[in-house]
Every structure is written in C-alpha cells, then in structure tokens.
Amino acid sequence: MPLGDSLPLSARSARAERADDMDAAPRRRSRSGRSSWERLAPLVLVAPAVLVIVVFRLWPLLLGVNFSFTGDGDRNGAAVGLDNYAELFADPLFLGALRNVVWLVLLLPIAVAIPGMLATFIYLRVPGHRFYRSVYFFPAVLSPVIVGSIFNLLLAFDGPLNGLLGLVGLGPVDWLGDSRVAMFTVVGVHIWATFGMALVVFLSGFATLDPALLDAARSDGASLPQVIRHVIVPGLSRTIQFVFVTTMIGMLTSMFGLLYVMTSGGPGGSTYLPEYYVWIQQGQMNRPAFAAAASTVLFLVMLVVGLAQVGFLRRTGKED
C-alpha cells in the first residue's frame, strides 16, 4: 500500500491544503506585484507633465510673487513689503487697466456667442454655412501686428470705414482716437482675429452631440432658437465652459500686439490692460519688481474671474 494511502484522511487533507497554499503563494505575489504596478503606472505616466508644470510654471510663478516684495532702483533687491502693491493701486493708469478688465468680462459673452453661433450654422447647414466653413479660420493665422496694421488703415479717420459711413449720411467716428470708443474698437478687432480657434473647439463639441436629440426636436416642431436653447446649449455645456475660460484668458494675456500697434495704450491711457501695463513698467520704466507686482495682480484677476465663470456656468447648467 502506498505511504500516502496509509495516512489518515485528516492528514491527507492538511497536506493537500499546504500544497495548494504553496502553489497559490506565487500567484498571490504575482497579483500583488501587478496591482502595485497598476497603482503606480498612472503616477509614472503623469510625472513628466507634472514636472514640466512645476519647473516651468509654478516655480517661476512663486519666484515672481516673491520678487514683487522687493524694491527697484536704489532699493534694488531689498525687501519692501507691500510698498509695490500700495503704489500699484494708487496709479490711475493701473486702475484704468482694471476698469478695462471689467469691460472685457462684460463683453465676453459676445466673444463666445459669435463663434458659437457660426459653429451652430455650420453644424445645422443653414444657408451660408459653406462660406463660414471656408473663411472662419483665416484671421487666426495672421499675426497681431499684421491685423493691427490692416485695421489701422481701415479705421483711420479718413479711412474706408468712415467713407462708407459718409455715404449713408453718418458722420465720421474717431475709432482709435476717442477714449470712449477706442477700447471697444480694439476688443472688436481681437474678437475678429481670434474667434476661429473657439469655433474649432465648438465644432469638436458638436461631434459629441447626439444627432437623435436634434431629430427629435425637429420632429416635435421646435424652431431654431428652441433647438439652440434646449438641445445644443445643454449638450455643449462643458465646451461652453472651456471656451469661456480660454477666451477670457486670451483677452487678458494676448492683446498686447494689437494694443501696441493700434493705440499704444492711448488715447490718454484709455486702452491700457494689465498685460500692457506690465510691459510698460518692465520694458520702458525698468522696474522689474514693480512689474512683478502687477503680474501677480493680473494672475489673481484671471484666477478669480475664471473660477467665477466656471461656477456660474455650472449653476446655470444644473438649473437648466
């Protein structure tokens, strides 16, 4: 009789269990190793991007904030506390730049609605959609210097636009020399020059929209405004949030070229924005620490405006 057969049943069961445990141990270690790697893999994959952001974004930002508490000129490098910020908010030019930021926020819905409506026309194939599809991205490939130079000619006091106004019996407008009009003129040119990028984002958002919803709305007899309000806007809520934030950031940080070419901050500082003010203090006044303080304020303004926009749009989307 084999030795194994002579063992009691309980002993044989215990030995079998030990053998199963020995066989299962490598599998558990293998599964444990795989699960550990699966937990670490996402961290390894995002580590290069996080490193780039920390080294080239967050660290320079912290250095700039720290630099804003130092002095310029005779007090170069010396700690001055909040002196730069106190001087900053006592400067009428900077306060005027902040007032212009308020105008940008108020004009932002127009800057978002224009590419949104054009994208809707293209997607719904309304009359004229082929024209929009052909020319919408052309302004985005032009540099701000070229765009500003072109509109300086078009908007000159004796230029073509005022000539057309004269033909219809309207008086000329000093588009770039009137402090009440100049800021709106530059913002309008900026919207024209940059709406192509936002339109591309909207068209990408339309690719995720369920066509069955549009077909159902049409079957129920919904008009175009009703389709836009009740189907398209809720379906593109995430896209609209993204375009709102990126458009606002672009207005605050990408209008320097147009301002420099079209108005140089004039007339009387009426077209100053924080970005242009920072360049004046750094490039012409040679006050880097003071410019760092203005840059810090600009960053905080963008952060507050962006968070407020996202919060407002999310609440609006939930209410709808």
From TrEMBL:
Keywords: Cell membrane, Membrane, Sugar transport, Transmembrane, Transmembrane helix, Transport. InterPro entries: ABC_transporter_permease, MetI-like, MetI-like_sf. Residues 98-309 form the ABC transmembrane type-1 domain. It is a multi-pass membrane protein. Residues 14-26 have a biased composition (Basic and acidic residues). Residues 1-30 are annotated as: Disordered. One of its GO terms (cellular component) is plasma membrane. Residues 1-13 have a biased composition (Low complexity). It holds the Pfam family BPD_transp_1. It comes from the Bacteria. It is found in: Cell membrane. The keyword Transmembrane helix applies. SUPFAM superfamilies: MetI-like (SSF161098). The keyword Lipoprotein does not apply. The chain crosses the membrane at residues 40-59, 101-124, 136-157, 181-209, 242-262, 289-313. GO terms for biological process: transmembrane transport. Belongs to the binding-protein-dependent transport system permease family. This is Multiple sugar transport system permease protein.
